[in-house]
């Protein structure tokens, strides 16, 4: 009877509430900058996550509170060089990943990306790393595939005729994802790579891997696995789960084939001495496919959008001049092109979001603040590329020239976090840069790009996916005008 007594109930609630509040306000994170509410609840953060706006929300907190911000009772975001070095670089590969990465397991297996601790990660990385080394990417068998696909991209765009005779409208985003998909499958399986720029069947596969609207469903899976299991079926009516049957077929059948080229990842993994079974290989391949499409595709898309703006025309001219004056030159020998790509990735790091890690046992001091063990800490490229205005003056301005200045070069490079850093940084970086630069050379040696009249700034605002992001409108229409010799003399 006592349990039903309203007075007893009310006082129990009061006591429990008081204990909770006491725990919160005596938390070691209370001394950190950040909204007071974040001491008590993570609901504000979750709200923004569900609205696909976590990155921008955290950035707004950094703008208000500085490079160190408490964003939830157990979570802190850093946007400083100290933070980057300690969290991602200490001991080589930084702190261990959190269970957030369980969401990236494939076929129930842990891939290199979804391993949580140093040891498991190092074991897998030893097998895969050399296939992504620059020397392997720069082999002609690898580059030829990229060049061929870039040629098909141009072909594909020039066929999508719109408006007047010499103006083409290209659905750049879709085409760039095809390009990135074909590029990465070439590297994974050649000669079994895809041809989505020409074959509609392969394009369907690409769409399945990339047009992923499972964000909300997977957030529920992460925050409340039990609930997700209970109401998964109902939930999937409102928030789609992630399913990729066509892509599964592609990787699983590719992994059973023999005779892939020496430079490919598959060739390496099939080496018996590594003891990987078919499912391990397929999981790893599907993961690299997913990791290589949205990122490279959206980074290129956003960069071409920026280059196409009226205020960027001088940048575009200078890029065209450098490319035409050095035709036949290797893509990695063009300093202005390099600056343009760096600036594109600075303004729009395709993975702009927090990369969550646990503070190791015993706790650590990060950027001057003592942080207890098991706290979730992270940096997000979007903020690391903007907060320190001594390193990146006028951070919202797309200005490739900043990368050509000698002053501050080291700081810029150290704060550049588009590929993350340390031992768990992007393994596909050299492949991604080769793909981006090859395509930009092919486009800007032939065309001037302009935004299509139907596109707005808001269309190109970032919208978060689980870890990468995309333009809010999920499209990017550009006009391609063929270059005429005379223009370049101006
Ligand atoms: C512009 C293009 C790209 C960007 C901006 C990018 C960015 C990143 C970032 C920030 C990480 C660290 C993620 C984390 O710690 O949670 C990462 C990891 C990774 N990326 Fe990329 N990436 C790009 C292209 C690629 C490509 C083309 C591949 C190729 C197959 C690839 C494969 C991977 C893999 C396998 C990892 C996991 C590495 C590890 O855990 O050791 N990425 N990437
Ligand atoms: C995302 O968050 C930022 C900063 O809090 C805000 O200015 C912006 O309006 C938000 N965008 C959307 C679509 O909610």
Automatic annotation (TrEMBL):
- InterPro entries registered for this protein in UniProt: Cyt_P450 (IPR001128), Cyt_P450_E_grp-I (IPR002401), Cyt_P450_sf (IPR036396), Cytochrome_P450_monoxygenase (IPR050121)
Q: Name one Pfam family in it.
A: p450
Please verify whether the record's keywords include Oxidoreductase: no
The residues the record assigns to binding heme are 426
UniProt cofactor(s):
heme
Keyword list, A-Z: Heme, Iron, Metal-binding, Signal
Q: Which GO terms describe its molecular function?
A: heme binding; iron ion binding; monooxygenase activity; oxidoreductase activity, acting on paired donors, with incorporation or reduction of molecular oxygen
> Taxonomically, which superkingdom?
Eukaryota
Signal sequence range: 1-17
The protein's matches in PANTHER family, at most eight in alphabetical order, are given as: CYTOCHROME P450, P450, PUTATIVE (EUROFUNG)-RELATED
Protein name per the record: Uu.00g003610.m01.CDS01
In its UniProt entry, the species of origin is given as Anthostomella pinea
């Amino acid at each position: 009877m006592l349990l039903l007594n309203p007075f007893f109930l009310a006082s129990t609630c009061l006591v429990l509430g008081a204990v909770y509040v006491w725990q919160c306000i005596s938390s070691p994170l209370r001394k950190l900058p950040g909204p007071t509410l974040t001491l008590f609840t993570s609901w504000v953060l979750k709200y923004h996550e569900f609205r696909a706006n976590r990155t921008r929300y955290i950035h707004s907190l950094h703008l208000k509170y500085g490079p160190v911000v408490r964003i939830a009772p157990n979570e802190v975001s850093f946007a400083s060089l100290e933070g980057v070095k300690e969290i991602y670089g200490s001991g080589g590969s930084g702190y261990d990943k959190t269970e957030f990465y369980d969401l990236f397991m494939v076929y129930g297996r842990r891939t290199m990306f979804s391993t949580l601790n140093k040891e498991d990660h190092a074991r897998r990385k030893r097998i895969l790393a050399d296939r992504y080394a620059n020397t392997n990417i720069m082999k002609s068998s690898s580059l030829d595939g990229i060049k061929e696909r870039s040629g098909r991209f141009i072909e594909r765009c020039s066929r999508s005729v719109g408006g007047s005779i010499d103006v083409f409208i290209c659905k750049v985003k879709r085409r760039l994802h095809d390009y990135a998909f074909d590029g990465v499958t070439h590297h994974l399986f050649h000669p079994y790579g895809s041809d989505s720029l020409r074959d509609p069947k392969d394009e369907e596969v690409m769409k399945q891997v990339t047009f992923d609207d499972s964000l909300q469903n997977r957030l529920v899976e992460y925050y409340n696995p039990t609930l997700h299991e209970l109401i998964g079926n109902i939930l999937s009516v409102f928030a789609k789960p992630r399913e990729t049957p066509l892509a599964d077929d592609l990787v699983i059948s590719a992994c059973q084939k023999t005779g892939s080229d020496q430079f490919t990842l598959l060739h390496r993994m099939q080496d018996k001495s590594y003891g990987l079974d078919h499912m391990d290989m397929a999981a790893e391949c599907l993961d690299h496919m997913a990791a290589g499409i949205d990122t490279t595709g959206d980074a290129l898309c956003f960069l071409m959008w920026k280059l196409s703006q009226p205020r960027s025309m001088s940048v575009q001219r200078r890029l065209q001049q450098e490319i035409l004056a050095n035709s036949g030159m290797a893509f990695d020998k063009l300093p202005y092109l390099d600056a343009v790509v760096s600036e594109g990735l600075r303004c729009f790091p395709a993975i702009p979001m927090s990369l969550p890690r646990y503070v190791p046992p015993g706790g650590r001091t990060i950027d001057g603040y003592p942080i207890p063990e098991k706290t979730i800490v992270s940096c997000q490229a979007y903020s690391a590329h903007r907060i320190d205005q001594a390193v990146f003056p006028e951070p919202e301005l797309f200005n490739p020239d900043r990368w050509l200045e000698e002053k501050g070069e080291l700081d810029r490079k150290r704060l550049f976090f588009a590929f993350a850093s340390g031992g768990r940084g992007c393994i596909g970086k050299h492949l991604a840069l080769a793909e981006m630069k090859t395509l930009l050379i092919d486009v800007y040696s032939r065309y001037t790009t302009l935004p299509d009249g139907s596109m707005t700034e808001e269309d190109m605002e970032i919208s978060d996916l689980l870890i990468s992001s995309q333009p809010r409108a999920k499209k990017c229409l550009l006009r391609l005008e063929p270059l005429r010799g005379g223009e370049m003399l101006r």
